[in-house]
Amino acid sequence: MTSQTLPTKTLLAGVALACTTIALPTLPRQSPIWQPPQGLTWDYHLLNPASATTPTARVMAIDLFDNTPSTITALHSANTKVICYFSAGSYENWRPDWTDPIPSDVGNDLDGWEGEKWAGIRSQTVRAVMAARIALAQEKGCDAVDPDNIDGYNNENGLGLTSGDSEDFMRFLATEAHGRGLAIGLKNSLEIVDSLTGDVDFAVNEQCHEFSECDVYGDFVETGKAVFHVEYPKGEDVDDEMPTDPDVKGDICGDAASRTFSTIMKNMDLDQWIEFCDA
């Protein structure tokens, strides 16, 4: 982790002690805020730090904490936009910036994700943590942010979270991101796509083809906004270099409901392996 994270760590230490919202300084905006067009090639690479662009991908979604500003600068030099991923709706016990949460700010474990719990997204302390992460994304040079786990309302979260809470939280995050010149995407959370279309700049979707849900984005894409779409055709237990079965790939890429999406196929662990529909 570079020294750029130190102001964020200092801020969050104060948040943990005071349990109050601390205003982050407003930095000069990047103008204009990136509005990704439909049809851009992209890659979703979260397992390890990114070392280079995928040659045909014009957008890279990478982990906010695991990548350095120099990596992001190199991606920009390759004419690649950078979306920085972080979990906004959960507490992850391995992250360096939120190490000792207030018990009331965390709920149940996320099913299948060791060390991760649902976050109390109504809490001002949690919101300060996430605002600091957006500030870090700006410091590192990201073009956009991909806040994950917004859909606590759709899970046994242990905090009584509702879809209305998620809508309010996303609007808070969007205000923070836009105030720092960053675009922001809505991750999954299909039940609130329509209500947030005017607040976000793009969407990120996992497995809408697998679950026959891609048509939910009908009104969203009519506005011209991009949907960065990933399917995991090998399932949860296989992460290898083997190509997707041609029939499965044909079904994914031929889905009429996702014809305007930027669709890729990945291993579930989001390593370097990738397939595009046109290759």
Outline the structure in words.
The protein has 7 helices and 12 strands. The longest helix has 17 residues, at 124-140. Mean pLDDT is 90; it is low at 1-23. 26% of the residues lie in helices and 20% in strands. It has helices at residues 6-18, 69-77, 124-140, 163-179, 193-196, 218-222, 246-253, and strands at residues 42-45, 59-63, 81-87, 90-92, 106-109, 116-119, 144-148, 183-187, 202-206, 226-231, 262-266, 274-276. The chain is α/β, with parallel strands linked by helices and 279 residues long. Helix 1 packs antiparallel against helix 3 (124-140). It has one domain: TIM Barrel, CATH 3.20.20.70. Strands 1-2-3-7-8-9-10-11-12 form a 9-stranded mixed beta sheet. A 3-stranded antiparallel beta sheet has the order 4-6-5, with no helix packed on it.
Which structural traits does this protein have?
alpha/beta; 7 helices; 3-stranded antiparallel β-sheet; TIM Barrel; single chain; 9-stranded mixed β-sheet; 279 residues; disordered N terminus; 20% strand
Strand and helix layout:
Elements: H1 6-18, E1 42-45, E2 59-63, H2 69-77, E3 81-87, E4 90-92, E5 106-109, E6 116-119, H3 124-140, E7 144-148, H4 163-179, E8 183-187, H5 193-196, E9 202-206, H6 218-222, E10 226-231, H7 246-253, E11 262-266, E12 274-276
Helix pairs in contact: 1-3, 3-4
